[in-house]
Structures are given as structure tokens and as C-alpha cells.
């Protein structure tokens, strides 16, 4: 069987000055699974899902609940006989609308979904109760041969936020969590963290009419998974340090403080891979000065599972050439790596601007956004340019994030900037010439 994954460990510069003190080198670890539709082993992976629906009072605004009902009914209609989906509604309490095994009777399940607004479960938001009920249902059909995921949709702030995050973290080895926020009143940082920590996806839904499409995208993504449980392992050579680490594709976010074990090894879990969608981690390494010659900086590996086959690993050395030749050290950097370095830098600027603005430093936030916009123009990301410009205009007008318009433009900017823009082959050729 041909290897279903292409693994690459690329540095932005192949040559480094021998005398350089604390030289920063960017390392891209990227794995791309083959897109075969039916999975890398030709086997369609059955789904085992828990769908958690906010049915608090605010879900009646802007026809949100109506669109959710349509979306979940679409999901039910597109299930295969061996798929299992449990549906939970929550407000002040949680209610099991349909268990995983009930999905065989699609018409009965759709009738139950239609009646979701008649449930007497209060009007508040206790998301942890809904998540817990869905997790219990998913565990009833839990199997390594299934794609196990919980989908959570909410439009408001929830009680006991840490309980939600703890549930996702405690169960991440068995299932992933995708979190969907509707409108402008939910805690986006909580939903992002739930998705990031468990290998799921975060979706910002600004317009309620987008809800059915988001559910369709989730379903298509699940169907496109070809390899499972992906993980990058990196063992650093003595003297090499990690300054910072970011997930670089398909979304951009910080991976927190780098913590090496006693063997100078660190791992980054990227979860299930959809065919044709690169999973990437971008690291900033700090190098010590060395004598001229080719030096191994690290050993890199990508570990993953092929459904029906078993575990696999691809590995290789990360090397750089130390040189005394300044011209050689100044050669053109790798365009693919630098493109992602630029996109990560934009995301960092946006996040810093957001924090400055929340602290009341409007001028500082505006300057950071101006730099971010210039960078988006440089890399040709028109959508990000427009989103950041819209956010900057809004904060100049309102001077606060308390208004719905300001919060909406912030959420839109976050969503666009976080989504990695993969350059087409021709654009990459131009960068690498």
C-alpha cells in the first residue's frame, strides 16, 4: 500500500552564518493526507456524533433555532445506515432529543427535531450539561473504527465555562469537539479553546442563515477524513531551543509555551486529517553559533493511524548548513515557509490589537491593525484586509467593544485571519525563484 501521507519538514533558510548568535530559524512541519473520498484505505469511516443544540430563549432571535432545525434535519437525511448520531438540546437543563441508535428511524428523529421548541428545559444556558449528555451518548457507540465527534452550537454566554473546557479536555483522546458560535454574544475564546484542545473545528456564524451550510461543511469534512490521530514528534539537538509554536494550517493559533521533556522531545497533536487539507505546525527555533558544515538540528516524525491498517510513522532529519559565506547565508528564503510565517505574524498582530483595545489603548490598537492590514496586502489576502479594515473603522467610531456592531466586526476579523490561506502552485513558484 502506498503511503497515504506526504510529510515535510522545511526550514525557511538552508544556510546560516556560523558566527550568528541566537539566530532565529523557522521550521514548518506539514502533513497532507491523500484525498480519496473513501479514505486512504478505501474504507468509509462510519460516524459517531453527538449534536448539542442551544435552545435558550435567545435562539429564537433572527430565526436561529429554525435554521438549526433545518441543518440537523439535513444531517439526518445524509446519514448512512452504519452512522450513529445523538441529538441533545440544552438550556437550564439538557434533554436527549434522539439517541444514537434511534437514528435508524430518520422520520421519527426529524419529527422530534421539529418539536424541539416545545421542550420544557428553561431559558438559560448550561452548555456543560448538554455536552455531558452528548458525550455519554457518543461513548455508547465509541469505536476506533468510527469518527467520534461532538458538535456544539450556542449563541450566548454559558454558566460554568471551565466545566465545558474540562469536559472537552477529559475526553479528547476518545472524541473531538467542534464548536459553533452564532451571533455576537457568545464567548469566542471558550469555543476556540474547546475546538483547539480536542482537535475539532471552531466556526463563527455571523448570519443565522449560514447555519445549514456550516453543518454541511462539517459533514463533508468528516467524510473526507483519510487518516486518524496525527501527531508531529520533534527531538531537538543540544543547544537548539523553541521560541514559539503555532498551528499554521488549516487554522492559525498559538500552541502555548514549548515544553521539552528530559530527552529534548516535544509533540504536537493535530488529530484526524481530511484528504488534501494540510495539517501544519510552524516553529521558531533559536540556534547557537556552530563551526561551518551541515548540522542536524532535530529529528522530526509524523505518526498517524490508517483505518483498517494500523499505525504508521514517517521520519527525517532537519538540517542546516552553517557557513562563513555571507552571500550564501543571504540566499532567498523558502517561499512556502515564509508565506506561513507572514500569516502567523498577521494573526499575532490582530490578537495584540484586540488586547490593546480591550485595555483602552485605542491608538496602540489602531497602529497594530494598520501594520496587520499592510501585511495582508503584502501576502494578497484580500478578505483579511477587508475584515481588519472593517474592525479598525468600527473601533474608531465606537471606541468600545460593547456594541453589537463592534463585537461582530471583531469576530469576523478573527475568523478570517485565523483561516490559513494556502497559496496556489504558481504563486509559490514566484516566491521561490
Summarize the structure.
The protein has 433 residues and is an alpha/beta fold.
Notes on the structure:
With 433 residues, the protein is α/β, with parallel strands linked by helices. The protein has 3 domains: 5-30 and 228-331, Immunoglobulin-like (Sandwich); 47-223, 3-Layer(aba) Sandwich (Rossmann fold), CATH 3.40.50; 336-418, Four Helix Bundle (Hemerythrin (Met), subunit A). It has 12 helices and 16 strands. The protein has helices spanning 64-77, 106-114, 127-140, 161-171, 188-198, 211-223, 326-329, 335-358, 362-379, 382-398, 404-418, 425-432; strands at residues 5-11, 15-17, 23-33, 47-54, 84-90, 94-98, 147-154, 176-182, 202-205, 225-236, 241-249, 253-254, 265-274, 279-287, 293-306, 310-323. The strands form 3 sheets. It has a 6-stranded mixed sheet, sandwiched between helices. A 5-stranded antiparallel sheet has the order 1-3-14-11-12, covered by helices on one side. α3 (127-140) runs parallel beside α4 (161-171), α8 runs antiparallel to α11 (404-418) and α9 runs antiparallel to α10 (382-398). It is globular. The two termini are 35 Å apart. The model has no long low-confidence stretch (mean pLDDT 92).
Amino acid at each position: 500500500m502506498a503511503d497515504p501521507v506526504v510529510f515535510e519538514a522545511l526550514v525557511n533558510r538552508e544556510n546560516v552564518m556560523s558566527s550568528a548568535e541566537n539566530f532565529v530559524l523557522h521550521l514548518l512541519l506539514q502533513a497532507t493526507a491523500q484525498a480519496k473520498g473513501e479514505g486512504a484505505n478505501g474504507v468509509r469511516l462510519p460516524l459517531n456524533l453527538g449534536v448539542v443544540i442551544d435552545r435558550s430563549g435567545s435562539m429564537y432571535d433572527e430565526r436561529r433555532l429554525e435554521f438549526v432545525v433545518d441543518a440537523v434535519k439535513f444531517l439526518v437525511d445524509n446519514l448512512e445506515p452504519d452512522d450513529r448520531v445523538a441529538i441533545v438540546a440544552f438550556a437550564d437543563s439538557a434533554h436527549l432529543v434522539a439517541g444514537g441508535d434511534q437514528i435508524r428511524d430518520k422520520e421519527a428523529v426529524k419529527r422530534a427535531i421539529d418539536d424541539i421548541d416545545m421542550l420544557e428545559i428553561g431559558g438559560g444556558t448550561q452548555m456543560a450539561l448538554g455536552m455531558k449528555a452528548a458525550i455519554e451518548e457518543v461513548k455508547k457507540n465509541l469505536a476506533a473504527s468510527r469518527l467520534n465527534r461532538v458538535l456544539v452550537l450556542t449563541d450566548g454566554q454559558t454558566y460554568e465555562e471551565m466545566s465545558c473546557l474540562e469536559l472537552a479536555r477529559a475526553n479528547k483522546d476518545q472524541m473531538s469537539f467542534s464548536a459553533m458560535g452564532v451571533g455576537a454574544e457568545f464567548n469566542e475564546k471558550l469555543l476556540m479553546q474547546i475546538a483547539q484542545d480536542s482537535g475539532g473545528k471552531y466556526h463563527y456564524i455571523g448570519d443565522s442563515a449560514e447555519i445549514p451550510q456550516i453543518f454541511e461543511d462539517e459533514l463533508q469534512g468528516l467524510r473526507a477524513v483519510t487518516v486518524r490521530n496525527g501527531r508531529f514528534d520533534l527531538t531537538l539537538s543540544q543547544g537548539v531551543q523553541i521560541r514559539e509554536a503555532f498551528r499554521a494550517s488549516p487554522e492559525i493559533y498559538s500552541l502555548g509555551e514549548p515544553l521539552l521533556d528530559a530527552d529534548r522531545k516535544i509533540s504536537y497533536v493535530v488529530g484526524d486529517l481530511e484528504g488534501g487539507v494540510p495539517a501544519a505546525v510552524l516553529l521558531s527555533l533559536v540556534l547557537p553559533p556552530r563551526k561551518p558544515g551541515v548540522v542536524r538540528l532535530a529529528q522530526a516524525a509524523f505518526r498517524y493511524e490508517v483505518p483498517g491498517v494500523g499505525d504508521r510513522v514517517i521520519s527525517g532529519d532537519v538540517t542546516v548548513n552553517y557557513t562563513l559565506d555571507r552571500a550564501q547565508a543571504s540566499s532567498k528564503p523558502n517561499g512556502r515557509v515564509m508565506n506561513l510565517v507572514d500569516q502567523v505574524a498577521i494573526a499575532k498582530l490582530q490578537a495584540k490589537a484586540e488586547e490593546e483595545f480591550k485595555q483602552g489603548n485605542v491608538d496602540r490598537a489602531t497602529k497594530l491593525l494598520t501594520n496587520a492590514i499592510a501585511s495582508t496586502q503584502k501576502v494578497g489576502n484580500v478578505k483579511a484586509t477587508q475584515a481588519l479594515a472593517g474592525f479598525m473603522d468600527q473601533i474608531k467610531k465606537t471606541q468600545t467593544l460593547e456594541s453589537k456592531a463592534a463585537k461582530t466586526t471583531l469576530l469576523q476579523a478573527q475568523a478570517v485571519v485565523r483561516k490559513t490561506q494556502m497559496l496556489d502552485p504558481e504563486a509559490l513558484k514566484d516566491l521561490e525563484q
